[in-house]
Write a structure and sequence with these properties.
The complex is a heterodimer of chains A (912) and B (73). With 912 residues, chain A is an all-alpha fold. Among the domains of chain A are: 275-299 and 317-356, no CATH class; 366-428 and 452-471, no CATH class; 817-869. In chain A, the strands form two sheets. In chain A, strands 3-4-2-5 form a four-stranded mixed sheet. Chain A has a two-stranded antiparallel sheet with strand order 6-7. In chain A, a hairpin with a 5-residue loop joins strand 6 (819-820) and strand 7 (826-827). Chain B has a single domain (2-72), classed as Ubiquitin-like (UB roll). The N and C termini of chain B lie far apart (28 Å). Classes of the chains: A mainly alpha (912), B alpha+beta (73).
């Protein structure tokens, strides 16, 4: 197809369909046949899903086909060749179609006749096989066309009648024909024109519609109740009965009016709001009336002011009444009197009085409160304040506690106070501060238990509360308390001082003995000694010693490190009181004592040595070894030779002078003096001394100014005294200068003493030895700097930004910032910027730029390498060479073909 | 009795007669009978409201002549 004529045909086709439908109504007998056939078709082609419209058309086509049987037969014939879905038209058909197309609408009768004849023939030959609807449709349409052509004249007539006919044609085929139809029901539109008339959906807009009956059947199958078809009739009945209702007008409708003509119920008509309202109004009015009447009735009973009263109006009656009242009163009085008289006569009055008194006595008074305990502090009850106390809740069975009175509000207050106190305590330390000492109001420390705040909770009973008992010497207690309070307030912020004890004393540089005695000494020394000494021994020793020694420790703390025992010993020594030394098995004690003695001895020696007096020395020293010997061997009681020490100012000064540079002397010592007393350490050295008989070398080697030990066991030989004297000379505070001329050793010694040479300190780890342990990148300066920085930081935090930044004084860095490109070239400012910029943006320069720059760089390089005396091409040197060769001062320029050039142009060109 | 038009806009358009106290499910069955689709596959909609099966037409205020959208699921 595909031409415009085809479209036209389609339109015509549609029209034709209607017509054909009307036509099929006419041919009543054939219709059934065709339907059966049609059903047959559908049965076979069950699988394909078709739209109903299609089916309609199909059926109609079939029907129309039945009208024109010939065309139908043709279509059947076609289906033989093709049973598939596609719309394929056999050649023969194509021919006919073409012919039809070609053929103008008014065909000749001859043609039509021939057509029909052919159709009939085919019909006879072939039975109707199943056919696809589309196919059929198409064929039938074509047939219809031919039909239309056939009955051209009649159609015109029929068309005029069409509207009427169409309504008739829409009547459905009987729905009862088949089950299958119901499932996919073909029935066309509703038959009854009445139901259609009230349907709100316009006819042309509607899709498939079932009639009410059909729907009802369907609903019956689905198990639903039938449609309520009363609405339509109601409307009509309403419309019809409108006149009647108007006629009735009163609104009284009997039940029959709710039924339509078929006896079915109608809806109850809506209530008339107007009537309702009227009724309501009426009822209200009636009610109002009723109430009014009731009120009026009530009012009618009451006398009004204007109404006359007989009693009051009549004067005599009024007077009578008044008299009556007075009389009654008098009568009552008289009766009361009579009764009283009677009571008195029988003595009842006294009894009554007694009773009253007793009752008063029995009443709860002050004295009955006596002995009751009040569970509050007495101070809580201010004077002139009323506090209501109630009995405290207690166990019923708990009788021994007795009744206590409390005030609920005060209890609450107390609880609150306690809570506050608990809260005040730091929860982190669990309310217990070990170091905090608490005092009560009188300054006595309060003993506290650990975590006492929980005591209440744990023990289950509250802390002893302040309470008092009513009726007990309240006043006394109060007075006492008041006095205490007064004292407290007086003492508050004051310190007690007595005037008696303050004896004025001269301030002295030295400690008094008493002070010394109270002076605190480091305890650890005593501990060490205690391991060896016994308290009893010490006591024995201390017994004979008396106070008042002339040896005062200087404030400088020379003796600060010395021990008690030492001190006592010294005192003993200096006074040279008689000591009874027992030869003891206790070697330790012996040794300690001897050592202390030795120390003392040295001290003495030093003190006295300056004004060197050999005799005195001998006098001093001589007995010592003897004493030593004696003490060691026999325990004879010895007597000291001198009692006094001469403290010479110069000597003292010089002694200190000599002392100070040496390390380890008594006053100058930082180490614990225990070294001196440390027996075990010194023992070996002592042994050495003993072996070497205490020669000078060992003494000097031992170190100048330190304590030397003298072997007590050793018996000093006479020669030793001299030695000792020499020794003493040697040990003079200001040493004699060694004789430089005597030898190298002496010279060295001198150098050492003068400080020209530095003695390598043995005790310190030497720098060279421990060099590998020292930090390599860390100097003392750094450390100091770090500390400084630390301080600075701290200061910065504390003092804020006002502080200047302190520069390191010696720090003068030589900063040179160079940018170097990938080729190692140093970039200038511009280039550096460009470089950085490219880096930053991640985008380099273009290719041309790079080339250009490279070129430039090359040129620069050339420029730099270029000699300043020659041209870049070296012509000058060449000229000079030429001149050398020719040994002439000139060069001949010749051979130029160009005349323009000068004399010198050509040869140079030649050189090239 | 009311009449409702159901239209899937794909070519099926049916008018269904039913009672206002029918449920949507009943309506669906009726529609299914008319269109030939299974009633479980039918979805009735009005705008974005999907009508639910157990609820009555009157409760949805579906009146005579209303147009429902017919969808399939």
């Amino acid at each position: 197809m595909g031409s415009s004529s085809a479209g036209k045909k389609h339109k015509k086709d549609k029209k034709h369909r209607h017509r054909s439908r009307s036509l099929e109504r006419r041919s009543g007998v054939e219709e059934d046949e065709v339907q059966i056939l049609d059903r047959h078709h559908r049965h076979k082609k069950h699988k394909e899903h078709r739209h109903k419209h299609h089916r309609h058309r199909e059926r109609e086509g079939g029907e129309s086909g039945s009208g024109g049987r010939a065309s139908e037969v043709i279509s059947l014939e076609e289906s033989d060749s093709d049973s598939s879905d596609c719309v394929e038209v056999p050649i023969e058909h194509a021919k006919t179609r073409v012919r039809e197309r070609e053929a103008p609408p008014p065909p000749t009768i001859r043609e039509r006749v021939r057509d029909r004849e052919r159709d009939r023939e085919t019909e006879v030959s072939a039975p109707p096989p199943p056919q696809i609807s589309k196919h059929l449709d198409y064929e039938r349409r074509r047939e219809r066309e031919s039909d239309r052509e056939r009955e051209s004249r009649k159609r015109m007539m029929r068309e005029k009648e069409r509207p009427r006919e169409r309504s008739r044609s829409q009547s459905p085929p009987p729905p009862s024909t088949s089950r299958r139809r119901d499932a996919a029901p073909p029935p066309p539109t509703i038959s009854s024109s009445s139901s259609r008339s009230y349907s709100p959906i316009p006819d042309n807009g509607a899709g498939d519609v079932l009639s009410i009956e059909e729907t009802n059947k369907l609903r019956a199958k689905l198990g639903l109740k039938p449609l309520e078809v009363d609405s339509g009739p109601t409307k009509s009945s309403a419309a019809s009965s409108h006149g009647e209702s108007h006629a009735k007008s009163s609104g009284e409708k009997d039940l029959s009016s709710y039924k339509d003509e078929w006896g079915e119920f109608l809806h109850k008509p809506a209530d008339n709001i107007k009537e309702k309202k009227q009724a309501e109004k009426l009822r209200d009015k009636l009610n109002l009336r009723k109430e009014k009447r009731f009120l009026e009735e009530r009012l009618a009973r009451i006398k009004t002011l204007g109404e006359s009263d007989e009693e009051t109006d009549n004067t005599s009656k009024w007077v009578d009444r008044n008299k009556r009242v007075v009389n009654e009163r008098e009568e009552a009085k008289r009766k009361a009197k009579e009764l009283e008289e009677l009571d008195e006569a029988f003595g009842v009055a006294e009894m009554v009085e007694e009773e009253k008194q007793k009752a008063r006595q029995r009443a709860y008074g002050d004295n009955s409160l006596k002995g009751l305990r009040v569970d509050h502090d007495m101070d809580d009850f201010g004077e002139g304040r009323t506090v209501i106390l109630t009995l405290k809740d207690q166990d019923v069975l708990n009788e021994e506690d007795g009744d206590t009175l409390v005030n609920v509000n005060m209890l609450d207050d107390e609880r609150y106070k306690k809570n506050v106190a608990n809260k005040k305590q730091n929860p982190l330390s669990y309310g217990y501060d070990v170091y905090e000492e608490q005092y009560d109001e009188l300054g006595n420390p309060i003993e506290r238990s650990i975590l006492e705040k929980y005591d209440d909770d744990i023990d289950g009973k509250p802390k002893k509360r302040k309470n008092f008992v009513i009726g007990e010497n309240v006043e006394e207690q109060r007075d006492q308390r008041r006095k205490l309070l007064e004292i407290k307030t007086k003492l508050a912020g004051k310190r007690l001082e007595t005037l008696q004890d303050t004896n004025l004393q001269l301030a002295s540089d030295t400690y008094s003995t008493a002070e010394l005695a109270t002076f605190k000494k480091p305890k650890k020394k005593i501990k060490k000694l205690r391991q060896k000494l016994k308290a009893e021994d010490l006591e024995q020793l201390a017994e004979p010693s008396t106070s008042g020694s002339s040896n005062f420790g200087s404030r400088h703390g020379r003796y600060r490190d010395a021990d008690d025992i030492e001190m006592k010993d010294e005192e003993q020594e200096t006074k040279s009181t008689q000591i009874k030394l027992e030869l003891d098995d206790d070697d330790d004690l012996e040794r300690v004592l001897s050592k202390a003695r030795r120390l003392k001895q040295k001290e003495n020696i030093i003190k006295k040595s300056l004004p060197i007096d050999v005799a005195a020395i001998e006098r001093d020293i001589k007995p010592e070894p003897v004493q030593e010997v004696n003490s060691a061997t026999s325990g004879i009681i010895l007597s000291g030779t001198d009692n006094n020490i001469v403290l010479n100012a110069t000597a003292e000064f010089c002694r200190t002078l000599g002392d100070i540079p040496t390390y380890g002397m008594a006053g100058n010592r930082n180490e614990d003096s225990n070294d001196m007393m440390d027996f075990d350490n010194n023992e070996q050295q002592m042994d050495e001394h003993m072996d070497g008989h205490g020669d000078e070398a060992s003494v000097s080697g031992h170190g100048h100014g330190t304590w030397n030990s003298v072997n007590p066991d050793e018996v000093m030989q006479p020669a030793d005294f001299d030695n000792l004297g020499d020794d003493l000379e040697d040990r003079a505070i200001l040493d004699e200068e060694p004789d430089v001329g005597a030898g190298v050793a002496n010279a060295l010694r001198l150098a050492l003493s003068k400080g020209y040479l530095e003695k390598e300190e043995k005790n310190r780890p030497s720098n060279t030895k421990m060099a590998h342990l020292q930090a390599k990148n860390y100097s003392i300066e750094d450390k100091a700097a770090g500390e400084e920085e630390k301080v600075g930081r701290r200061d910065r935090f504390h003092s804020g930004p006002i502080m200047d930044f302190k520069d390191k004084e010696t720090f003068k860095p030589n900063v040179k910032l160079d940018y170097i490109d990938d080729n190692g070239r140093i970039l200038n400012l511009k280039e550096a910027f460009r470089y950085l910029s490219h880096k930053f943006h991640g985008k380099g320069p273009g290719k041309n730029k790079i080339e250009k720059r490279l070129k430039k760089m090359e040129q620069d390089g050339l420029m730099k390498t270029m000699s300043s005396t020659d041209t870049p091409l070296g012509t000058l040197t060449m000229l000079q060479q030429k001149q050398k060769e020719t040994k002439t001062a000139y060069v001949v320029l010749s051979g130029s073909n160009k005349t323009t050039s000068g004399v010198g142009g050509a040869p140079i060109a030649k050189f090239k | 009795m009311i009449e409702i038009t159901c239209n899937d806009r794909l070519g099926k358009k049916v008018r269904v007669k039913c009672n206002p106290d029918d449920t949507i499910g009943d309506l669906k069955k009726l529609i299914a009978a008319q269109t030939g689709t299974k009633h479980e596959k039918i979805v009735l909609k009005k705008w974005y409201t999907i009508y639910k099966d157990p609820i009555r037409l009157s409760d949805y205020e579906i009146h005579d002549g209303m147009n429902l959208e017919l969808y399939y699921q």
